[in-house]
Design a protein that fits this description.
The complex is a heterodimer of chains A (188) and B (330). Chain A has 188 residues and is mainly β. Chain A has one helix and 16 strands. Chain A has three domains: 3-63, Roll (SH3 type barrels); 67-127, Beta Barrel (OB fold (Dihydrolipoamide Acetyltransferase, E2P)), CATH 2.40.50.140; 131-187, OB fold (Dihydrolipoamide Acetyltransferase, E2P) (Beta Barrel). In chain A, the strands form four sheets. A five-stranded antiparallel β-sheet of chain A has the order 9-8-7-10-11. Chain A has a five-stranded antiparallel β-sheet with strand order 14-13-12-15-16, with no helix packed on it. Chain B has a domain at 1-118 and 299-330: Bira Bifunctional Protein, Domain 2 (BirA Bifunctional Protein, domain 2, 2-Layer Sandwich). In chain B, the strands form two sheets. In chain B, strands 1, 5, 6, 7, 8, 9, 10, 11 and 12 form a nine-stranded mixed β-sheet that branches. In chain B, strands 2-4-3 form a three-stranded antiparallel β-sheet, with no helix packed on it. Chain B starts with 11 loop residues before the first helix and ends in a 17-residue tail after the last helix. Classes of the chains: A mainly beta (188), B alpha+beta (330).
Chain lengths: 188, 330
């Protein structure tokens, strides 16, 4: 892998830091007119999702990380691993473990495309689309006539996610959900 | 290379504002009989400052290819004018510093630099504040802080006497980095730029601009300023001031070193430090040394980042809002 000097750091560049692959979020050049130049860098650790703030002397470099973000369709889980397939027609499959899937397990629906981050060819994280359509598998019966405001109730969706929905929603309905906030948007 | 970004990064309104401010600067100096000069951007000597990287250019000069340097500041040439008896002079000069790229840095930038023979540092600082008042069109309230006091205030340590290992540990903590190979000044620069600078020149945009000055830097950071023994606490300090507004370093003033032998010694120290840092040797400017030998009047001089001042005056926080074409688009 190539290495990158601080003056090549820019948002989205993938580098290795302390053994973890990271994505550069922000890079600020700081230099007293007469003094040492530094780069104050924010990096997202792609393994943990945590954002690190680190300072480097300008001109220092970091090893690039072999990280790829690819669109993949979710296929199924065998209970231990979650299986995805590239959408480029190659049918190549990748298995993601619990750590990579994390909290996004509740947004995994078959045949939907996810962005899978590969590090050295292993999935380390997945990102769902911003909006996803899921069926309600369980909720209290809908209240007729209540189509405007007034209260909400929990509903369990086909993937196991539980979201707050308006009172008028019924079991079996398909809803549009914002995966970033985990909030109900509308009926699909 | 994409050429879709042919348009300037600054709005035409911002460029008009810039032109007006530049005219105000020239007017300010005209009223004070300070002579406007122009000195070369391309010189046969480069900057030996170990922490500045000059850009090199090859040119055919008197039949031979020769290495020339884009100037990191107009200082040396202006000092030669002073030695030639110019009296007070100012210049709005383009300067170049390799690899300095960021929101507040551009490789090519505009310095306003001026020298006042017979002025002490305090007098020049006052003039600098008056110049900034003229550019901003509003009064300034200035607080002056000693470098040492700022470290005591914000970091509870003494930059002059603390063990280097202690400074390195604090720098490591602040920067989240390994500072084992840091020099004492590296540690001080990191702590100053990360902890203290953001606190300087805090201003909520009222009718009076609030600026901070920093004085009495460590002697090791004297660059081209005189060093002197501080009468209060006996430490050796650099006769420098810096002005800050909104956390941005705006101006750097010196009680100028005029002693040719001392200047030559500092050039050698700088080149020794360059060698340690693995940077190429830069031939020091022999003509500057000759000029100092011939005699430069005692004077104070200051370099002010004109792009930055105009940026802040315009209420912006990125230089490219007041520069037509930053280097990435040049």
């Amino acid at each position: 892998m190539a290495s990158y000097s601080t003056n090549e750091f820019k948002g989205g560049l993938k580098v290795m830091l302390d053994g973890d692959p990271c994505s550069i979020v922000e890079n600020e050049f700081v230099k007293p007119g007469k003094g040492q130049a530094f780069n104050r860098v924010k990096l997202r650790n792609l393994n943990t999702g945590r954002v690190w703030e680190r300072t480097f002397k300008s001109g220092e470099s970091l090893e690039g990380a072999d990280v790829l973000e690819l669109d993949m369709e979710y296929l199924y889980t065998d209970g231990e691993m979650w299986h995805f397939m590239k959408t480029d027609g190659s049918f190549e499959q990748f298995a993601a473990d619990k750590k990579a899937v994390g909290d996004n397990e509740k947004w995994l629906k078959e045949q939907v495309a996810y962005v899978v981050t590969l590090w050295n060819d292993n999935p380390i994280s997945i990102a769902p689309p911003n909006f996803i359509e899921l069926e309600v598998t369980e909720t209290d019966p809908g209240l007729k006539g209540d189509t405007a405001q007034g209260g909400s109730k929990p509903a369990t969706l086909s993937t196991g996610a539980v979201v707050r929905v308006p009172l008028f929603i019924n079991q079996g309905e398909v809803l549009k959900i914002d995966t970033r906030s985990g909030e109900y948007v509308s009926r699909a | 290379m994409s050429v879709a970004d042919w348009a300037p990064t600054a709005s035409l309104d911002a460029l008009r504002f810039r032109a007006e401010r530049m005219a105000a600067v020239r007017q300010f100096f005209a009223e004070r009989q300070v002579l406007e000069v122009e000195t070369p951007v391309l010189g046969q000597g480069g900057s030996v400052d170990p922490l500045l990287d000059s850009l090199q250019v090859e040119a055919r000069l008197s039949g031979q290819r020769q290495r020339l340097w884009l100037q990191t500041s107009p200082e040396f040439h202006m000092k030669r004018l002073l030695a030639a008896g110019s009296g007070p002079i100012f210049q709005i000069a383009h300067a170049f510093r390799d690899a300095e790229v960021g929101q507040r840095h551009n490789i090519e930038f505009t310095l306003l630099e001026w020298y006042q023979p017979g002025y002490g540092l305090d007098l020049l600082r006052e003039e600098c504040v008056e110049l900034i008042e003229r550019v901003l069109g509003k009064p300034i309230s200035l607080s002056v802080h000693r470098y040492r006091a700022l470290f005591e205030q914000w970091l509870e340590l003494d930059p002059f006497t603390a063990e280097t290992s202690h400074l390195a540990a604090r720098a490591a903590e602040v920067g989240g980095m390994d500072t084992a190979d840091f020099s004492r000044d590296d540690c001080l620069d990191l702590l100053f730029s990360h902890v203290i600078e953001p606190q300087l020149g805090k201003d909520s945009g009222g009718a009076v601009a609030l600026l901070d000055a920093v004085v009495d830097y460590p002697a090791s950071q004297a660059a081209l300023a005189k060093r002197r023994r501080d009468p209060v606490d006996g430490v050796e300090v650099a006769a420098r001031f810096e002005l800050y507004w909104q956390g941005v370093e705006l101006a750097n003033g010196y009680d100028e070193l005029a002693d040719a032998a001392e200047q030559a010694a500092r050039f050698e120290e700088d080149n020794a430090q360059r060698a340690q840092l693995g940077k190429p040797r830069v031939d020091s400017d022999q003509r500057l040394l000759a000029a100092l030998e011939a005699g430069m009047p005692a004077c104070s001089g200051v370099a002010l980042g004109l792009d930055r001042l105009i940026m802040l005056a315009a209420g912006e926080c990125r230089l490219d809002k007041v520069i037509a074409f930053p280097t990435e688009r040049a």
